[in-house]
Amino acid sequence: MTSVMAHRLPKVNFNIYNATKESGTVYLTMTVNGGRIRFAPGISVNPSYWDKKRKRLDGRANLDGNHARGINAILDKWEDLALRIYTDNTRITAEDLKERLVEERDGKIGLPKEVINTLDGFARFYVEEQKATASNPRNFDPLATTATYLERYAAHTNKSIYWREIDKSFARKFRAFLERKEFDLSHNQVANIFYRLRHIMKAAGPDVGAKGFHENKAYLLPEFKLSEEAAYRHYLNEDELAQFLACDLSDQPHLEKARDLFVLNAYTGLRRSDAKRVTRDHYYVSDKGNEQIKIYTGKSSKYVHIPLMPEARAILEKYDWKLPLTADQTYNENIKVAAKLAGLDERMTHTHTRAGKTVTESFPKYERIRSHDARRSFATNFYELGFPAALLMQITGHAREDTFFKYICTTPERAADLFAERLEAVRKFQKERATKKLLEQSTPAFVGSVGNN
């Protein structure tokens, strides 16, 4: 105790950084052996209730849901820990003391330094950590792709990506790297990699619940937020669906089954994952006597009622309401082959950015057809028939209108044609109504003149 008292204890302060009107991050600050420490314990508070003199929350915080006593007790524990680490080794450097605090906060004692100090090192660690606890590890495959490209960039530059070096210049260089011809990435693929890069940086940053490995919020800069181009989306109109359904595929049952499942989804609007579960137990008759499919959808977590149209009913009855199951990849490949045999070969074009260059691609329609195009076909066909979005969303299960409209594949040319058709119908109706009104007005006078004679 005497040796400890011979050293003057450093002063521990708590200050607010990254403050907005309603939230700010609490940082522990202290100077140790000439080095300055700034460490985020993972606590955010309302700056309005921060007592700058006491370096703690004041009692008014209780009115806003921030319980001052509890938060202040946590801050006291961090202060005690920092001083205890110092008294155990009064010659400790500021960097080492902060590292001990970080290890205590994250429970990750012994992590490799490249995980703590670099983006590329942390990215791979974070992906594996998430996959290890996920119910479906494949959900993190896109994140793993981002980690791979960060590793490739680090290898390309022959150095790791340290947190302090991540700025707008890094964003530009990394984007240029991703747009190299050898990767052949579309603009939207690059934008998605940046989206997940921001996710990774935030997970390692100073916010509440994050790792606190860095304090760099460069990922909020515009250079890290790439807007997406209009993605290529297509659908089959009702004539094409009829053509697809009419194609005789009986000699190739695997293609026939894939085609039938696609058309079923195009007349129900169900996601493939939900359509695979449909059985006779989902058959439902409404109070008005209308046949429906009533099913609890996985993604939207709610029941939807779907009108059972003749095309869908015929397919369900064909399989006795026991739909054949196929792997997703096999299903998509079979749809393409079946669509080709059905003659769905209209030439399509799509202009977009790939490898940093604007390109226009031309291809037959069957080449790009995929399972989700069935759901787009449902949304687009019935929207073009004039059904309001709010009504269709009750059937598709979409909660947000902006998400639903991503399923509408109406082209500008088609929209203009639909407008012309509707306008012609409205004018025809107006003309007929005016003619009828004119006849009604003239009839009494005509009858009266006949009676006088």
Automatic annotation (TrEMBL):
<dbReference type="Pfam" id="PF17293">
    <property type="entry name" value="Arm-DNA-bind_5"/>
</dbReference>
<dbReference type="InterPro" id="IPR010998">
    <property type="entry name" value="Integrase_recombinase_N"/>
</dbReference>
<dbReference type="GO" id="GO:0015074">
    <property type="term" value="P:DNA integration"/>
</dbReference>
<dbReference type="InterPro" id="IPR025269">
    <property type="entry name" value="SAM-like_dom"/>
</dbReference>
<dbReference type="InterPro" id="IPR013762">
    <property type="entry name" value="Integrase-like_cat_sf"/>
</dbReference>
<keyword id="KW-0233">DNA recombination</keyword>
<dbReference type="InterPro" id="IPR002104">
    <property type="entry name" value="Integrase_catalytic"/>
</dbReference>
<dbReference type="Pfam" id="PF00589">
    <property type="entry name" value="Phage_integrase"/>
</dbReference>
<dbReference type="GO" id="GO:0006310">
    <property type="term" value="P:DNA recombination"/>
</dbReference>
<dbReference type="InterPro" id="IPR011010">
    <property type="entry name" value="DNA_brk_join_enz"/>
</dbReference>
<keyword id="KW-0238">DNA-binding</keyword>
<dbReference type="InterPro" id="IPR035386">
    <property type="entry name" value="Arm-DNA-bind_5"/>
</dbReference>
<feature type="domain" description="Tyr recombinase">
    <location>
        <begin position="231"/>
        <end position="420"/>
    </location>
</feature>
<comment type="similarity">
    <text>Belongs to the 'phage' integrase family.</text>
</comment>
<dbReference type="InterPro" id="IPR050090">
    <property type="entry name" value="Tyrosine_recombinase_XerCD"/>
</dbReference>
<dbReference type="Pfam" id="PF13102">
    <property type="entry name" value="Phage_int_SAM_5"/>
</dbReference>
<dbReference type="GO" id="GO:0003677">
    <property type="term" value="F:DNA binding"/>
</dbReference>
<protein>
    <recommendedName>
        <fullName>Tyr recombinase domain-containing protein</fullName>
    </recommendedName>
</protein>
